[in-house]
Protein: Aminotransferase
Organism: Lactiplantibacillus plantarum
Amino acid sequence: MKIAGFGVEAWLNAHEREATTDISQSSIAALTMAEIAALEDQQAPQDFYEELGAARLDYGWIEGSPRFKELVSQLYEQVPAANVLQTNGATGANHLAIYSLVEPGDHVIALYPSYQQLYDIPKSLGATVDYWHIHESAGWLPDIMELQRLIRPETKMILLNNAINPTGSLLDRTLLEQVVTLARSVGAYVLADEVYEPLDETPFVSIADLYERGIAVNSLSKTYSAPGIRIGWTATPSQAIADIFRKYRDYTMICGGVLNDQLAVRILAHRQRVLARNRELVSRNLKILTEWVAQEPRVELITPHGISVSCIKLIVPIDDETFCQQLLRDTGVLLVPGSRFDIPGHARLGYCTDTPTLQRGLDLLGQYLRRFD
Ligand SMILES: Cc1ncc(COP(=O)(O)O)c(C=O)c1O
C-alpha cells in the first residue's frame, strides 16, 4: 500500500523544535496538567494526582469509559452513547472510519484542499478520489453545483473537514443540508472531521445531527486544547455504522488508555470552562491578527470566524516554501507553507498560541516582509 507524504506533518516534524517563535500550529494554546487539575472546584489538585496515581493501568474501558461516551453523546442530538467510539485522536478516528468503509475501486469525494488524511488514505486504499474544491474567491468555500457534478450513483463516501484546516472557513447548515440531500440520493456516507469548532457566535451543526449516514469525527486536540492526551472519537446516529467500526477498531487500537480517558473525561465534564478560556484567547488573538493584517501591505486574509486556524496570502516575489524556510532561518518564526496544503502563495498562521508569542511572531514577520519592499 503506497501513500503520499503528509505535507503539513512532515514540515512540522522537521521544523517545530528549531522554531523560537512558533505561529504555525492549529491547536489553541495547550492546557497544562496543572490547569486540568484545577478545572474541578470541589477537588484539590493533590486529590487529582492521587486519583491518577491510584489508576490501574490495565486496558481500561475498551470503547472509552461510560462517562466519556455519555459526555461525548451530549455534544450531539442524534448520537446515543452506544454509538460513540473512542479513538487515538481525530487522526485515529478518520483512519478508522475510512479503513472500515472504503474499499479498492470505490468512488469517494473529498473536500479539497483540506486535511490531507481525508483524501490520501482513501487513495492509498485503492479508491478513486474526486476533489470538491474550495475557492478563495468564495471565502474558501466549495460550490454545491460542483458536488452535484461529481457525485455518482456508486459514490461511497463524501469526506468533509468542517471547519476547514488551514483556511478556517465553515460549511454552514444550509450547505451541509444540500450535501446531505445529494449524499442521501445515492446512499453515500458523509464523514466530517469537526475538530475545529467556531468559538464565536457563528452557529455550528454536526453532520451526525443532520444525516442518518453521517459520521462525525472529533477530538480533544483543537477546540479543547489537549492534543497531548491523544483522545478522539467517532460519533454516528447509526448503530450499524458503529458496529462496523467496532470490528475494525479491535484490530487497530484496542483502547485509548486509562489515564488518557480520565483526563478526557475531566476536560469534557468542564467543557464550558475550557471553551470560555479558549473563546477569550481566540477573540483576543484574532483581533491582534486582523489589526496587523490591516496595516501589512504584503499579507491578505479571509478572516476565520472564531476558528483557530488562518490562511494568509503572501504578496512576495518568492515561493511560499522558500519564504517560510528563510523566515525560520533568519528570524526563528515558524509558519506552514501553503504548498504543504496544496495552496501555494499562502501560509498557515496559527494565531491561537499564547498572546505574547503571537505578538512577537507578527512583529518579526512584519520586519521580515520589509525586505521585499
Ligand atoms: C482537520 C484535522 N483533523 C485532525 C487533526 C489531528 O487531530 P488529533 O490530534 O486529534 O489526531 C488535525 C491536526 O492538525 C486537523 O487539522
Remarks:
- The pocket of pyridoxal-5'-phosphate is lined by residues 26, 89-91, 115, 161, 165, 193, 195, 219, 221, 227, 232 (CB under 6 Å).
- The two ends are 47 Å apart (CA to CA).
